[in-house]
From TrEMBL, chains A, B:
Coiled coil: none annotated. The lineage of its organism: Bacteria, Pseudomonadati, Pseudomonadota, Gammaproteobacteria, Thiotrichales. PROSITE patterns: TOPRIM. Residues 79-174 form the Toprim domain. The keyword Heme does not apply. This is Recombination protein RecR. InterPro entries: DNA_Rcmb_RecR, Rcmb_RecR, Rcmb_RecR_Znf, TOPRIM_dom, TOPRIM_RecR. The gene is recR.
Length: 197, 197
């Protein structure tokens, strides 16, 4: 008995993480009853981002340009390269203000069971970057989970082979926690107390 | 340092109820990293619904047609007219299966302090409907809040003037609760035990 367009909209909202049938319904009604212009802006922002945002050719983070603003900045070419799993991790490290170098974004972690090997997380690109002599220190900031640790170990071996100093964020990150949800203080601690590996 | 398009998308997600900066960011990254096609479908469903969904000319609920499917159905012309505050309330009553009549959707409640009087919630339309003799019983299912009760009282007076029997959902609805979040059982109870007023 529900309007088909509203039903489709409610189902479409289910693609969002953490949105079940009840919240999807609330979202649809909220926009249609009270904020159609906000709904239209969201629709436009979404289609524009989906169509134009791709990956930085240097660090693999999400960007609508060929290379992201951090990779473009000469100020950031300090020789320190921080490895993270996701663009959200870049965001939280940038917020803390503790790190001035560049990033390499894996867009995931090694997960052989899901068919995600070194190539899928861009480690061929990382290896050629390590071999060109521009990286003086590799700071590994993958999540302290089983997969994140395995990925860190793999990258560490790669860096050792290339003769690049490697360190890993350590102190302050709770086991099993996710970088994305850390506060800036804890994260700054983890940067300052990073241990070589 | 964030991509402008991603930043705009994150801000756009804030129009959704219950979505703060952190969840907005998670939603944006989730779609861009893992489900671009889902994001595009959401964008399309949203613009289509925003552009085409309006109000039923008979009951005021949200619909993309001139009149909604319930108002169109001859089976539903039982003479019972249920007054609710929102389209979501129609949904939850329909789910319970307890009610076979038609609805009138206020799209809000009386709230003089916000400039919402009888006209803003369509009571002129309701009054002309009550006067045409098609309604044998008015079942008021506004929320059991202060504003919902005041609105119920106003409509009750209107119905009495028109000589239409009025009842109000009563038993089982917790004070201060919102109809939209009730389970079907409680709601069915409230229908069966409705008291005349
Ligand atoms: Zn980049
Ligand atoms: Zn209708």
């Amino acid at each position: 008995m529900q309007s088909p367009l509203i039903q489709e909209l409610i189902e479409a909202f289910r693609v969002l993480p953490g949105v079940g049938p009840k919240s999807a319904q609330r979202m649809a009604y909220h926009l249609l009853e009270r904020n159609k212009s906000g709904g239209l802006l969201l629709s436009q922002a979404l289609s524009k981002a989906v169509e134009e945002v791709g990956h930085c050719s240097l660090c693999r983070t999400l960007t609508e340009e060929e290379t992201c603003s951090i990779c473009q900045s000469a100020r950031r070419a300090t020789g320190e390269l921080c490895i993270v799993e996701s663009p959200a991790d870049v965001g939280v490290i940038e917020q803390s203000g503790i790190f001035q170098g560049q990033y390499f974004v894996l867009m995931g972690h090694l997960s052989p069971i899901d068919g995600i090997g070194p190539k899928q997380i861009g480690l061929d690109l990382l290896e050629s970057r390590l071999s060109d002599g521009s990286v003086s220190e590799l700071i590994i900031a993958t999540n302290p989970t089983v997969e994140g640790e395995a990925t860190a170990h793999y990258i560490q071996q790669m860096a050792i082979k290339q003769g690049v100093v490697v360190s890993r964020l350590a102190q302050g990150i709770p086991m099993g926690g996710e970088l994305e949800y850390l506060d800036s203080g804890t994260l700054s601690q983890a940067f300052l107390a990073r241990r070589s590996m």
